[in-house]
Design goal:
Blueprint lengths: L6 H7 L18 H4 L12 E5 L5 H6 L1 H11 L3 E5 L4 E5 L8 H14 L3 H4 L1 H4 L4 E6 H4 L5 H11 L4 H10 L2 E5 L2 E6 L1 H16 L3 H17 L1
Antiparallel strand pairs: 1-3, 2-3, 4-6, 5-6
Helix pairs in contact: 9-11, 10-12, 11-12
Length: about 220
């Protein structure tokens, strides 16, 4: 039969002293090599990135290969090669003290493949508040044939004057690749440039768009 315990028995069995609460553990600060699993000795496996080179960027890539290779190898300590069979740039991690070096290198190469100059693409490695935004003209308005060509022409302007005006007013870099529009800059500046480009696609006069963009840019500088 099970033994029935009384209240006095339970009180007698209760320890008189409370169990001490353990103090908060004090862990040592992690080094950059420990926070990056790719550079840790416990996880020697490397990561890869492969960025395909479009046909129209093959010649510029070959011409600017040394300028592209220098920041990837010297500053990010990445292993880089160009695969002639797949026509792609392959990146591989190595022991490095920079967390996220592989992703930065992939963004840098992708930015160049979109059509940006090497000098502009290098800014992605130096500044942390730069972003890339890409969209198509047909995402704003469904246009076909000559209407689509005229919309692209309104964005570029005569001899690229409209595009240069948007770049200078918003401190961004813009690439027009057929129907694709790529914008490089800070978040606020990208938003101003994108709104101006969308207005041009919708058919707004360039003069009115430029005045509105300049007013918005002035307010951003004052804030």
């Amino acid at each position: 039969m099970a033994q029935i315990l009384t209240a006095s028995d339970l009180m007698d069995s209760t320890p008189t002293s409370q169990t001490p609460v353990p103090s908060t553990p004090d862990y040592p600060e992690l080094t950059p090599n420990q926070t990056n699993p790719n550079s840790s000795s416990q996880n020697p496996e490397s990561e890869y990135r492969r960025i395909r080179c479009p046909p129209h960027r093959y010649t510029p890539l070959r011409t600017s290969w040394e300028q592209i290779l220098t920041p990837l190898v010297q500053y990010l300590n990445l292993l880089v090669r160009f695969n002639t069979k797949t026509r792609s740039v392959e990146l591989k991690t190595s022991p490095t003290s920079t967390p996220g070096a592989l992703q930065k290198g992939a963004d840098f190469v992708s930015c160049f493949m979109m059509g940006f100059e090497v000098v502009d693409a290098v800014a992605l490695l130096r500044l942390d508040d730069l972003y890339l935004d890409s969209f198509q003209v047909t995402d704003v308005k469904m246009l076909k044939g000559d209407h689509l060509s005229r919309a692209i022409g309104r964005i570029a302007g005569e001899d690229g004057k409209t595009r240069y005006a948007i770049e200078n007013a918003t401190r961004t870099r813009i690439v027009l690749a057929d129907q694709h529009v790529h914008i490089l800059g800070s978040y606020q500046n990208i938003r101003v440039a994108r709104d101006a480009i969308c207005s041009l696609i919708m058919g707004a006069p360039p003069g009115k768009v430029y005045n509105n963009m300049r007013n918005v840019g002035r307010r951003l500088n004052e804030s």
